[in-house]
């Protein structure tokens, strides 16, 4: 069976993403692929007050996840802005099959989430440090 084309995206994923994008009532969303039912589901949602550290702590050290983070920042012209990051989290300690499933479903899943500004792939926390996020946002 082809795991790539058969990956479904739960409606809640799109709903929560729209809430984050339009209403700004979430800071981040962590998505998990349930391999048994071949579906992407919402695993965790961060409140608007959640910090970037809260977000990074919510990612498992040994399992892959897709995630979005709404990053607020101030430009050099002192303008408040926000960019939505899509983070493909694939730690080295995760299973090879899991990495393959996440990698092969990423583009299709990302297309379901309309409004992502920056994509980042990370295999360990240093690859998605706040400095890197800031650098990519500007």
From TrEMBL:
InterPro entries in UniProt: ADF-H, ADF-H/Gelsolin-like_dom_sf, ADF/Cofilin
Keywords: Actin-binding
UniProt KW Transmembrane keyword: no
Annotated Pfam families: Cofilin_ADF
GO molecular function ontology, one term from the record: actin binding
Biological processes, Gene Ontology terms: actin filament depolymerization
Residues in ADF-H domain copies: 6-138
Cell wall biogenesis/degradation found in the keyword field: no
A GO-annotated cellular component: actin cytoskeleton
Taxonomic superkingdom: Eukaryota
Entry-linked SUPFAM superfamilies: Actin depolymerizing proteins
Entry similarity comment: Belongs to the actin-binding proteins ADF family.
Protein name (record): ADF-H domain-containing protein
Organism: Citrus clementina
């Amino acid at each position: 069976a082809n795991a790539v084309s058969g990956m479904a995206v739960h409606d809640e994923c799109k709903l929560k993403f729209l809430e984050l994008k339009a209403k700004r009532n979430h800071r981040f969303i962590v998505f998990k692929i349930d391999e048994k039912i071949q579906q992407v589901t919402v695993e965790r949602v961060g409140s608007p007050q959640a910090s970037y550290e809260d977000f990074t702590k919510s990612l498992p050290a040994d399992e892959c996840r897709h995630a979005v983070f709404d990053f607020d920042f101030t430009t050099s012209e002192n303008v408040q802005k926000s960019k939505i990051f899509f983070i493909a989290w694939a730690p080295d300690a995760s299973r090879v099959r899991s990495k393959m499933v996440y990698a092969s479903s990423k583009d299709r899943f990302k297309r379901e989430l309309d409004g992502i500004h920056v994509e980042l792939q990370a295999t360990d926390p240093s690859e998605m440090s706040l400095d890197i996020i800031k650098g990519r946002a500007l």
